[in-house]
Amino acid sequence: MPKFIDAIAGFGVTFKAMFKKPITEQYPEEPGPTAQRYHGRHQLNRYEDGLEKCIGCELCAWACPADAIFVEGASNTEAERFSPGERYGRVYQINYLRCIGCGLCLEACPTRALTMTNDYEMADDNRSDLIYGKDKLLAPLTPDMTAPPHAMLEGSTDEDYYRGNVGAFRLTIQPKESLL
């Protein structure tokens, strides 16, 4: 008799599921919500004035265990400035055929230029379309941003940008003695 009770207890999950109403999702027409911290497609972020946060250091490419990221840095000039500081990422590519979504590239980024969005629909029938370039990865410009290349905000330094002291409508520059 105990073996019969063990068998009934073993089928308990099955019996509970048999009498529940099925949940049907209308996926392509009505996509469901994603978890708030879901790691999907990558995004290259911008500062509030439109300059790119990526400085072309290539640390994300070195940290990637799947070798899915390619970065080629270049030098900024006063005539063409894409990011604060000396360098910017001239070429930035992520191969989503190789990316495993581990997030190590996010941890390696010193300027928090790279983040992951909740966008999960990246399937395609063409392999070359799954290599995302900078044109697909860069965050869109908001109406109060200026498209790069342009100079940094007047009176600011690259350190102000990295510390977050530069905003679209504010610029707080502290005296040097208060920084010590």
TrEMBL record:
Membrane topology (UniProt): Peripheral membrane protein
UniProt lineage: Bacteria, Bacillati, Actinomycetota, Actinomycetes, Mycobacteriales
The keyword Metal-binding is assigned to this record: yes
Cofactor: binding comment: Binds 2 [4Fe-4S] clusters per subunit.
NCBIfam families: NuoI, PRK05888.1-3
Alphabetized PANTHER family for the sequence: NADH DEHYDROGENASE [UBIQUINONE] IRON-SULFUR PROTEIN 8, MITOCHONDRIAL, NADH DEHYDROGENASE UBIQUINONE IRON-SULFUR PROTEIN 8, MITOCHONDRIAL
Naturally occurring in which organism (per UniProt): Mycolicibacterium sediminis
Gene field: nuoI
Cofactors named for this entry: [4Fe-4S] cluster
Assigned keywords, A-Z: 4Fe-4S, Cell membrane, Iron, Iron-sulfur, Membrane, Metal-binding, NAD, Quinone, Repeat, Translocase, Ubiquinone
A cellular component term, taken from the record's GO annotations: plasma membrane
Subunit structure and binding partners: NDH-1 is composed of 14 different subunits. Subunits NuoA, H, J, K, L, M, N constitute the membrane sector of the complex.
Single GO molecular function: 4 iron, 4 sulfur cluster binding
First-listed, main subcellular location of the protein, grouped into a coarse class: membrane
Residues annotated as binding [4Fe-4S] cluster 1: 54, 57, 60, 109
Assigned EC number: 7.1.1.-
Protein name: NADH-quinone oxidoreductase subunit I
Example of a GO biological process term: aerobic respiration
